Amino acid sequence: MKALFMSIAFSLIACSCGTNAPKTGEATVKSVTAKEFRKLSTAGKGILLDVRTAEEFADGHIRGAQNIDVRSSDFEANIKRLPADKAILVYCRSGKRSLTAAEILSKNGFRKIVNLKGGIEEWNEAGFGTVK
């Protein structure tokens, strides 16, 4: 009985250790505030990717952003043109589509992905502004 208990305890400890730590080669998706996102984007720390529609992008976007609509049928084909060794700074309107995009980016080999929490709405609330 003692051996069975020890075996179960060891199994539980082994299963719980390291489950949150990324394995070598796994993507990391980090969600950051508008202030942190701005710091990264202005420092040239990656590719700035707006995943909203072309119409939303035309209404105002973060300076230097590329637009690839996450809901378009050719999203995966288009992101494959981006350099996979660079960080991808991704945003949308509120932060939901960009998380979907981050998942797709991860599945396509991108390893450093930064998501703007609250999307461009938070960006604008912080007073950082957009370009048309």
Any overview of this molecule?
This protein is of the alpha/beta class and 132 residues long. The chain has six helices and five strands. Strands 1-5-4-2-3 form a five-stranded parallel β-sheet. It is globular. The N terminus is likely disordered.
Strand order of the main beta sheet, please? 1-5-4-2-3
Tally the helices: 6
How many beta-strand elements? 5
Q: Average pLDDT value?
A: 85
Strand content: 15-25%
- Determine the structural class based on helices, strands and strand pairing: alpha/beta
Which stretches of 5+ consecutive residues score pLDDT under 50?
Answer: 1-24
What global shape is seen? Answer: globular
SSE order, as H and E? HEHEHEHEHEH
Distance, first to last CA: 71 Å
Helix content: 40-55%
Sheet bearing the most strands, described?
5 strands, parallel
Q: Whole-number radius of gyration?
A: 19 Å
Summary, kept brief:
By secondary structure, the chain is an alpha/beta fold. The protein has helices at about 1-15, 35-40, 55-60, 75-80, 95-105, 120-125, and strands at about 30, 45-50, 65, 90, 110-115.
List the helices and strands and how they pair.
Layout (H helix, E strand, L loop, with lengths): L1 H15 L11 E5 L1 H9 L4 E4 L3 H6 L6 E2 L7 H5 L8 E4 L4 H12 L4 E5 L2 H7 L7
Parallel strand pairs: 1-5, 2-3, 2-4, 4-5
